[in-house]
Amino acid sequence: MESPVEQVLTVERKAAQVERYSGEVVYIYAYDVAYDMKRQPVRELLGQPVAQFSVDASKRSPKQLFFYRPQMVRLPPLERIGPSGPVRVDRVIKLLPVGAISITVRVPFDVGKIEDLVAYHDLEFSNGSLHEEVRRLAEEVRTELASYYVQPVKHLAEEEAYTAFCFDSPFLGMDGTAARAENWLKTNRRAVASLLTQEPEVDHLSKQESDESTGRFLSYYVHDLVVVDWDAALIMDQRENFDETLYVMELANLQLAELEAYDRLLDDSLDRAYRDLASRQRHRPARLRELREIRIDLARFSDELSNITKFFGDWHLARIYEVISARFHLADWHRTIDDKLRTLDNLYQLLHHDQTNRWMLMLELTIVLLFIIDLVVLIMGLK
Known about the structure:
The protein is an alpha+beta fold. It has helices at 4-16, 130-144, 181-187, 189-197, 207-213, 242-279, 284-307, 316-328, 330-382; strands at residues 21-32, 34-37, 44-45, 48-49, 51-52, 71-82, 85-96, 100-111, 124-125, 128-129, 149-152, 160-168, 217-218, 225-228, 232-237. Helix 1 (4-16) packs across helix 3 (181-187).
């Protein structure tokens, strides 16, 4: 005969055994396309009208939301042949003032096991991969908006991609009752970890890796859940509530892409500055102007990047942003860029002092030369 505790555990296990899973996989791609974007509205993109993005928070939040609302374009849906047959593909493009674009693609799913979704990480259609299709779309956007950008990139760098598996909630267990989100995760932790880490063999994943991949999760109601990992996330909620969580993830992903882009820019600037110092080049004024412009632009960039991710406090979306920014190591990226900015500033000061010293030397030589000329004129006059 089972004890009361064992009976409760048995009931929870039955409730956590779900017959089928439905929802959508949301692919988030961030591209750095320009140094900056002109402050003028875009009316139309790829033949579609441009609108202002907005999202409403359904869970606990401040009265005055700090959501940044970028311009967005919703493209017509496409029909593709996916892993489980014909699927409808929805695409949305968002334009960011820091010279970046974000493309989200939604693909529905209906599977019997969580492991069946591993194939959705690198999604392949009958006519090619989703990755290639999105990259071509990003190229079209970059080309059409070239006049709106300041110093657009010549070639797109690698995108920053993130995948969110959004499950319709609540789950109905084998006994017909709704499964509690945290109990379901506890029972299916290894399967969730294999999904987030893209491991097709669930049993091959160690307990340590399973605990690490699913260790950062948040739940607000008994039937919702957000599990955040480095490369993917699992969201369990009602479909109308997906957007607010996805938008926080999208902004964090954009922030990571832009931090990486500016880190590359700083690396190039530092390399040139070191070469100038080593080769004793005479083009110091132009180099000083370039360094000064980079310092000013990066200060403005840091301010703009902070403005689009104002998620502070204990409200639910702020906690989600805190978790995903920790997964992305955004604070470490900020520190790395700040350190390089300080190094760049020191090089600027060094070059500036060097230029000042040369001017002072030229001034002293001029004074000595004038003094000598004055003496020559005086001596000639006496003779």
